[in-house]
Amino acid sequence: MMKIDQINDQILQELSRDGRISNIELADRVGLSPSACLRRVQELERAGVIAGYRAVLDRTKMGIGFVAYIAVGLNDHSKASQEAFERAISRAPEVLECHNITGTIEYLLRVECADLPSYKTFHTDMLGALPQVNAITSYVVMGSPKDERA
After folding, report:
1. 3-state secondary structure of 61
2. How far apart are CA 113 and CA 121, in angstroms?
3. Predicted TM-score (pTM) of this structure
4. Which one is the CATH code of 59-140: 3.40.50.150, 3.90.980.10, 3.30.70.920, 3.30.460.80?
5. Which residues are registered as beta bridge partners of 98?
6. Average pLDDT of 33-42?
7. In Å, what is the CA distance from 74 to each residue of 22, 39, 78, 147, 150?
8. Could you report the per-residue pLDDT of 94-148, keeping only the tens digit for each?
9. Distance between CA atoms of 52 and 74, rounded to whole angstroms?
10. Which one, 82, 109, 124, 146, has least CB within 10 Å?
């Protein structure tokens, strides 16, 4: 595991805010020479601390107006049941996140659809049709005052 010192932490904070920042601007913001800054960024990439760079998309401008978190309970807690559920979910384009969690249910999903009717179709025809699923609880996102996902 790589040690994250104060300068590396500053580099990561700046890159989290703007992954397209130039190395010269990044170096200036963290108080390093451009060459020293570039070496640190490359080392963070090699160590896997920086796993990649992404574009932050405005989903509403892409026609995505409905976001929900869905708690999913399975009727069978076997490894085979979990793997079958995960395979099915990995093929669903509406599911942007799938987390296997602890508690009273097995999975938490983040789903994005165009609107409520398209969510109903996903809920009924895809998720509700999976033989492993025995409980579905939807939490509709009404707003996101803080969202730092890239």
Report:
1. helix
2. 10
3. 0.83
4. 3.30.70.920
5. 109
6. 98
7. 47, 47, 9, 29, 30
8. 999 999 999 999 999 999 999 999 999 999 999 999 999 999 999 999 999 998 8
9. 33
10. 146
